[in-house]
What does this fold into?
Amino acid sequence: MKITKVAVIGAGLMGHGIAQVSAQVAGYEVYLKDIKQEFLDKGMGRIKWSLGKLVEKEKISQGDADTVLSRIHPTLDMKEAVGEADLVVEAAPEKLQLKKTLFEAFDEFTPYHAILASNTSSISITEIAKATKRPDKVVGMHFFNPVQIMKLVEIVKGEKTSDETVEVITKVSQQMRKETVLCKRDRPGFIVNRILVPALLDAIRLVEEDVASIEDIDKAIRLGLNWPMGPITLADYVGLDTALNITRVFQEGLDKHRYDPPALLEKMVKEGKLGRKTKQGFLDWSR
Ligand code: 3HC
It folds into this structure.
């Protein structure tokens, strides 16, 4: 199956990067959809910033950057976004009901051959697929932040995802110059977040229990485990709301007590301190 047109749903932290890599690396025609003009503007702004960085470092030319931008079509209209898509990649907020409503719309408006992928970090692909009449073509395609830099795509097979769909997504990921891993069973958090999120929660518990300073917790893991970022910085980087949402999914789908979120995490999310995206989390990101 040949992919030429891709619709990316959600222009946020992940969606803008997925749109950029689809247009820049894979050379696809991309429709980037969000629900408000300001979200589209912000997403396109992030893409321009990223392309600017690549031009500055002479990794691409200004002409290349212009070509990439000309391949990305921001839109508020669902039909325009997905109407001719061969592949839809959904990167909307992590809410099951929202994703089900979106997938229902994709099912209605996309050509029947189209593959419907979700960038969900923890929600069940099998559940999302139930909103469509083509569960064999629904699949998880989980990117990592920043999408432009991180090499991995986790491919997640729902109960009814066909081998052919997995094969196409593997090829698409290669076209984007990503490495893939296959999550054979659709379990909460898949591979990476199943391991990462408990580590982030424990790092937050260390802050809560005042075992060490934030600087020292981060330094310990950077230098002791060679992570590029310490876990508190990383929690801020992925978003504290995202970390909390994933924890809730773990509580429902894995173990209620084991994944009980630290009170400090809940408090910060309640206060709207979500990390880098709101400029304030455990760290100050305003500069
Ligand atoms: N576009 C283009 N270039 C970018 C970029 C972007 N969006 N973001 C960063 N870069 C470039 C920088 O310009 C820089 O280039 P240079 O080395 O040539 O100067 C290079 O990438 C490195 O960036 P920085 O110098 O700013 O900082 P670092 O060296 O610390 O690298 C990082 C940044 C790549 C983010 C690194 O810190 C890192 O790998 N951190 C961990 C990220 C991680 O773990 N991500 C996964 C999170 S989990 C997830 O996403 C799953 C979800 O479901 C929760």
